[in-house]
Amino acid sequence: QGERGRSTISGKDIQTLVRGLSLLKRLSVEGCERATTLAIDSANLETLCVYNAMRLEEVNLQCPRLEELCIHTPPSVYEERRSGSEDSCNLSSTGAMQLARQIGSACSTVRRLHLNIPSLTDRALHEVLISCTTEVRCLSVTHSKHITDASIKEVATSCPHLDLLDLSGARHITDYALDMICVAYEFNLRHLLLAACPQLTCHGIQRAASKLQAIELLDCGFTITMQEPNSYEKSKSSSSSRSTRHTNGNKRKRRISDSLEADEELNMESFELRSPCLKKVSLWGCKRIQVSCQS
At 12, phi and psi to the nearest 5? Predict the structure, then answer.
């Protein structure tokens, strides 16, 4: 029994389980808070998913048929509270590099790779990708708050045949990364997920949608918002707010309210998507935009 009465499993437990099931092809394990080491030797395992492995430090996989690998190592609640920052991570930079090398060594046959490792950096992702096969079709690198446009260049070089690319939570990637994606995957990328990437702009996403000829699904949740008003506009707004404090007439308040509503409508930013194959667009959490889609 782990914390709060939940059952947890250690790396040794996972190894014992796989050893006892020699014909096992797919293994998905949640509640891996106690696992610090993941060592699996299996001749038949094709899919391995390990979730909530917040203490994971070492990976040793001997799985010659492995096609899908998912490793989820969220920061522990203790680490988040201790740092007091949402940018905290559960591994040091050295530990992240070591873990990345070990994951990379297991990816020579992997075609679908899902990594949710907040401490992952550009260098660490490079260590993973240099060992991957060029036949990777699905790459998900989520909540990696330290990766930048440099990682996208590495992805485009190492994984030229991607069908799905998920970069949700990459706070530092910019429109330049989208341009590289368009060049590398103009005719083959069908799913692009960019949720919670605040450096991306409406213009950049519109340009990407028009250039990616096979794109079917585009996720921009909590990414697209209109730019904040400039300092002059903020000053005008602040001055207007102060003046209204001394106004008691209902008519004056009504005129101000109407004016604010009109300004809000003027501040709505047009977001037009033109794509021949686009079927689904996710815009949850997006604000102050007017959307239109054309095939």
Answer: -65, -40
Residue 169 has what DSSP assignment? Answer: T
Answer yes or no: pTM beyond 0.90: no
The one-letter amino acid code at 263 reads D
d(CA 165, CA 205): 14
Alpha helices in 167-219 (DSSP H): 175-184, 202-211
Kind of pairing, strands 47-50 and 289-294?
unpaired
Distance between CA atoms of residues 13 and 84, nearest Å: 33
Q: Rounded to an integer, what distance in angstroms lies between the CA atom of residue 70 and that of residue 48?
A: 6
**117 vs 75: CA distance, rounded Å:** 9
Q: pLDDT tens digits for the chain (295 residues)?
A: 445 555 667 778 888 888 888 899 999 988 888 889 999 999 999 999 999 998 999 999 999 999 999 999 987 543 444 444 444 445 666 788 999 999 999 999 999 999 999 999 999 999 999 989 889 999 999 999 899 999 999 999 999 999 999 999 999 999 999 999 999 999 999 999 999 999 999 899 999 999 999 999 999 999 876 444 343 344 445 545 555 555 555 555 565 555 544 444 445 567 788 888 999 999 888 876 777 776 6
For the record, the structure tokens of 246 come out as: 């001394």
Tokens 């998507």 belong to which residue?
273
Could you say which DSSP state residue 288 is in?
Answer: S
| Whether the Cβ atoms of residue 36 and residue 13 lie closer than 8 Å to each other | no
The β-bridge relationship of strands 289-294 and 217-219 is unpaired
